[in-house]
Amino acid sequence: MNKFLVLIIVLFLPFATAAAQDGTEEFSDDTDEMGLESILEMKIVTATQKEQTAAEAPAIISVLTAEQIQELGITTLYEALDYLPGILVTETFFGYTMVNMRGMLQTNYNNKVLLLINGHPMRETINGSFHLEIVPIQAIERIEVIRGPGSALYGTNAFAGVINIITKTGPNQEKFTAQFGAGSFETMEAAATYGQKTERLDYFVALSTRNDKGYLFNVEKDEKNLAGDIDYENDITNAWASLTFKNLTISAAYFDQKKEKFGITPVISYSGPSNYQGAFLDALWQHQLNDEFNLKARLRYDTIDREFLLGDFPYPGFMDHEDADTLMIAKGKLFGSEIQLDYSPHSRFSLLSGVVYEHYNSDPYLFKFKDDKTVHPFSPYYNSQNANDLSIFSQGLIFFAEKSHFVLGFRYNNNSDSGTSIVPRAGVVYNILNNTFIKALYAEAYRSPDFFEKNVETYNVLYGKKDLKPERVKSFDLALDTTIRQKTNFNMDLFYLTTDELVTRVPTSDPDTTGENSAEYINLGGQNIWGVEVALITPVGKKARLFFNYSLCQGENKETEIDEGDQEIEKDLVFIAEHTANAGVSWKPAAWLSISPNFQYVSERGEVDPYFLAHLVVMMPLHKNIAVSLIGRNLTDEDYSYPEYVRQVIDEIPGGPGRSFFVRAHISF
């Protein structure tokens, strides 16, 4: 498989190099329509909240546009992110899809990466996790992804990186669109969008629903040494709406998801549906006070409700319940407010400062017997939890001549549960040639422990600790970003990061009291991780473009033993993939046909074998307002798995589906 990966690189790179060096090989109007130049020249906002191209922004940033998402034939935003360098998506037994960046693995929840929707932080208060399902894919204009710490600008959870979803608005979507699809696993989908701009306001709405009966999630061995199948169903309905009137923008989102999961632990008898319902409301007001000052104020509200079926927990007949099916019920709310002032006295200097206040609330986190709704004695916690979070941040951008600029920033945070954190960021971007930039970046980040990690007490599963400290990370980047002949973009990043006080699950010190396979949260010493990320996008001939990226990631634990040597931890980070690669071609041989093959490779992780996935998307415009896509995923029917690194009792979690096909129709008028 390693030789096969090298072969792909060898086959692809000559095409890219030849196209980059041949100035006579102009990219045709067909490929311009596919958005190559617009991708390279696109202005992004996540790095500094100032409009800059990705090349000149003081951050390691990747962008996925709506057109690229369509070309990849993906059905979820998790699949889209999996194509970016430094990112690896996995599944856990608890039903969450994890977005892991640069080897900093999530546990059971997406709380080491921060999700923004047009700058609005969206996360659960109970465990800090985000849900990409909250936004219909059809509502997305682009996705900006920062790899590396972002707490100085965005606060907690911007630990390994930041994902900012930029949605469409009335001005760029003044038409009605509809999408219908069907495919393997009895999958059916439908979506619609509409936007309009008038003299007084603009608005945009999107609705989407997807019913997926599910592939067989084949379990060869669970924690009880049993085998079986789980019907991995995943049904999602979501909606998005935004309205802008003068200086005020109001946005709202809602999603409802039903997803089968392995269990509260990797035990087949604990499998069952997970139900999530979430929503947010955002009010953003912006006002230009004068030529130098711009004021921004934001109010936001988030809520997530969860109900999981845990199966016969902990065993059939427990507490004289003939049917011991148990429901897990959790509800959380977050209220946030923010004021920002941007001072730009001239083009060579700007200062952004702000204050953010957040209030977190979690209802009692209960297990209930399904038959009579009585409270289960193993419930995680029985009382409501509340916390307040106050941050002050400031960031300066300083431009020197036309060749370089600096960013300097910091954030002071005080959390009523976790105490005080102060994190800085600094960086310099130097334009050594017209389209060639060198970046040297340093940043720190923190993640405040959440209610679940502090308060959970579930026998034979997990125990929290009240005195957990915030996690810390320091990161160094040295990057090159160059564009050749305004057509080919190449970037390479060398990174090193070190973490401390990682909140980690380890076996409890008293299994006789807490349960044989129980774990507890502690602050562990941390990890050192280093690597390189390479990405290329280039024309190939006159009617195609190629993308390729490769990531090398290695690391080690700072501590190899805990509890005075009673428990040992491996030195190497065995559950991260040392090598990952993605490649694809978008080819328009004719005006009525677009062909886009793409490939993904992930090397071994612990006892889990490497895998190589091949996908193909064929798009055919049948009319100026109608197009059809034919999508084939995992065409070689690869059987792949994910490492079970959370409890580490079994080696692996079964991976995604085998070969699947899908047809999708796009209509607009």
The average pLDDT is 89
The shape, in one word, is globular
Q: Strand content of the residues, in percent?
A: over 45%
Proportion in helices: under 10%
Q: In DSSP terms, counting alpha (H) and pi (I) runs of 4 or more, how many helices?
A: 8
Separation, N- and C-terminal Cα atoms: 47 Å
How would you sum up the major sheet?
A: 22 strands, antiparallel, barrel
- Name the structural class: mainly beta
Explained architecture:
8% of the residues lie in helices and 55% in strands. It is mainly beta. The strands form eight sheets. The protein has a 22-stranded antiparallel barrel. Strands 3-8-9-6-7 form a five-stranded mixed beta sheet.
Keywords for this structure?
669 residues; mainly beta; 22-stranded antiparallel beta barrel; 5-stranded mixed beta sheet; 8 helices; 42 strands; 8% helix; globular
